[in-house]
Structures are given as structure tokens and as C-alpha cells.
């Protein structure tokens, strides 16, 4: 039985692609309002893990539970769970032929069956939340990467999700634009949104995360609070990794 204290439970997830064993038993629980940052070297399965949580990848073994209901093996109900579990990708995935407003509105109308006027109000509200209301009538091609990413966050928020998964939401962006997106995410964390964030932004992870999970070779090797991860001698591998990441781009 899943414990109601936890919004999300991930239990012993395994995933291989052919011969390649990418996830080798990943288990963790998420409480409401937590921001968990996943860090780790390239190819260790961070994206695959997020994709297994909302079943964009089907795990070979293991379970995912949301509020005590099983997400894995949920058949047609997966569409319901995908509304409850939002996702924000590195490359935004906005519809190019729709304005910012329509990008946020469309799932409200098509998936949630909201009437167009109500959907428009809700979409404008969410755009306001991410500081993008002024850009509502603009098309993705007219937006900076940071603005486009904020629209895609508004789109995720519009579904009133229980949790949002972010897969390197700023890694396609310049530092300036990265900052504006991280600010929005920080605000969401402060408002109590539950978030799982794959990121290389250690400043964000250290200041916003309730827990940092260091993934390597398909498992969570080390986890702890940002303070523990930075100071505790036992987290040697993670500290080495952080040293390498934060060393990039410095003179
Ligand atoms: N659909 C797929 N088919 C085959 N192999 C895949 C597929 N998706 C991911 N992989 C492989 O699984 C491994 C883990 O990929 P994943 O994208 O989860 O890593 P990651 O930790 O997110 O890396 P990065 O930091 O580079 O984004 C990689 O070797 C990748 O090539
Ligand atoms: Mg990835």
C-alpha cells in the first residue's frame, strides 16, 4: 500500500534499451511541495527516469504511484495521469503555428473540455504567473528561448498538475535567459509546487532543492539535502561531479 504522505512513489524502476541497461533499480518517494534535483553524468538515465515516471518510456520492471494510485500498468488511465504529471522539456515543444496563448489554451479545451472563454482566462492567468501575459498573442518564433520555455511552463501549470517534471529546462538557453526561467521555477517551488528537475544548474539545485539525487550508472548513488551533498565527506562521487560541472566555463 502506498503511503498517502507521499505524492509520488517510484519503486525499483528498471529500463533497458536492447542490451543497454539504463535504469537498474531506482526507488524514491516525493512529498508534496518538494523540489528534487537530479544531477549526474550524461547517459546515466536521468531523462529516461523522468520519462518512465509519466510512461513516455515504459519501465521493464518496477512501479510508479501517484497519490497511492498506480501509474504503471494503468492502461487507458495513463492520459489522466499525464495531466496530473506535467512535463517541461529542454526544447519547449511548443506548436509553432499557435500563439503563446493558444499553446496554453489548447489542452484545456481539447483534453479537459473547458469552454473556450474559461480556457482563455485560465491560459492568461498561467501566462501571467510566468511573466508572459504581454506576449500572449506572439508566436513561438517571435519569442526568445527563455520566453518560449516560460510559455511551456505555463502550459504545464494550466493542467493544475500534482507534480511537474523538468528535463534540463535551461540547457538550451544563454545565461541571461537561463536566469529568467530559473526565477520562475524558484517561484513555483516557493508556492509549493512539487517538482522533479534534471539540471546542471548547481546554484539553482543548492538554493531551491529540498533534496539532490546524484545518479550514475542507472541508479541513485547518493542523495541528501544540498548542504549534505556539498559538505558531507561520504558524498565523494557527487562532489567530484559537482566540481567538474561548476568548473565548466570558468576562466
Ligand atoms: N529510446 C531510446 N532508444 C535507445 N537508447 C536510448 C533511448 N533513450 C535513451 N537511450 C540511451 O539510454 C542512455 C541513457 O539516456 P538518458 O537520455 O536517460 O541519459 P541522461 O542521463 O538524461 O543523459 P544527458 O545528461 O546526456 O541528458 C543513453 O545511453 C541513451 O543513448
Ligand atoms: Mg537527459
Describe what this molecule looks like in 3D:
- With 251 residues, this protein is an alpha/beta fold.
- The chain has a single domain (6-247), classed as 3-Layer(aba) Sandwich (Rossmann fold).
- It contains nine helices and ten strands.
- The strands form two sheets. A six-stranded mixed sheet has the order 6-7-8-3-9-10, sandwiched between helices. A four-stranded antiparallel sheet has the order 2-1-4-5, with helices on one face.
- The radius of gyration is 18 Å and the shape is globular.
- The mean pLDDT is 93.
- Bound molecules: adenosine-5'-triphosphate and magnesium ion.
- Adenosine-5'-triphosphate binds at residues 17, 20, 22, 42-48.
Question: Would you identify the CATH H-level superfamily?
Answer: P-loop containing nucleotide triphosphate hydrolases
Total beta-strand segments: 10
Radius of gyration: 18 Å
Based on the structure given, which CATH architecture is correct?
Answer: 3-Layer(aba) Sandwich
Number of helices: 9
Low-confidence stretches: none
Report the CATH topology name. Answer: Rossmann fold
Q: Which molecules are bound in this entry?
A: adenosine-5'-triphosphate, magnesium ion
Termini Cα gap: 52 Å
Share of β-strand residues: 25-35%
CATH top level assignment: Alpha Beta
Number of domains: 1
- What structural category do the secondary elements indicate? alpha/beta
Helix content: 25-40%
Amino acid at each position: 500500500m502506498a503511503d498517502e504522505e507521499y505524492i509520488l512513489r517510484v519503486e525499483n524502476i528498471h529500463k533497458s534499451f536492447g542490451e543497454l541497461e539504463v535504469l537498474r533499480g531506482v526507488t524514491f518517494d516525493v512529498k508534496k511541495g518538494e523540489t528534487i534535483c537530479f544531477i549526474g553524468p550524461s547517459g546515466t538515465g536521468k531523462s529516461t527516469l523522468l520519462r518512465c515516471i509519466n510512461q513516455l518510456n515504459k519501465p521493464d520492471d518496477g512501479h510508479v504511484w501517484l497519490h497511492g494510485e498506480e501509474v504503471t500498468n494503468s492502461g487507458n488511465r495513463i492520459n489522466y495521469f499525464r495531466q496530473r504529471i506535467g512535463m517541461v522539456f529542454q526544447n519547449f515543444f511548443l506548436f509553432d503555428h499557435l500563439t503563446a496563448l493558444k499553446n496554453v489554451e489548447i489542452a484545456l479545451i481539447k483534453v479537459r473540455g473547458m469552454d473556450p472563454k474559461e480556457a482563455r482566462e485560465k491560459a492568461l492567468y498561467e501566462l501571467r504567473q510566468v511573466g508572459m501575459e504581454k506576449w500572449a498573442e506572439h508566436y513561438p518564433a517571435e519569442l526568445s528561448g527563455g520566453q518560449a520555455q516560460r510559455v511551456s511552463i505555463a502550459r504545464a501549470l494550466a493542467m493544475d498538475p500534482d507534480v511537474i517534471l523538468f528535463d534540463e529546462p535551461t540547457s538550451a538557453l544563454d545565461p541571461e535567459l537561463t536566469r529568467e526561467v530559473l526565477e520562475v521555477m524558484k517561484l513555483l517551488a516557493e508556492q509549493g509546487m512539487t517538482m522533479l528537475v534534471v539540471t546542471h544548474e548547481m546554484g539553482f539545485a543548492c538554493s531551491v532543492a529540498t533534496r539532490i539525487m546524484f545518479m550514475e550508472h542507472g541508479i541513485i548513488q547518493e542523495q541528501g539535502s544540498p548542504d549534505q551533498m556539498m559538505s558531507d565527506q561520504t558524498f565523494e562521487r557527487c562532489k567530484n561531479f559537482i566540481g567538474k560541472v561548476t568548473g565548466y566555463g570558468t576562466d
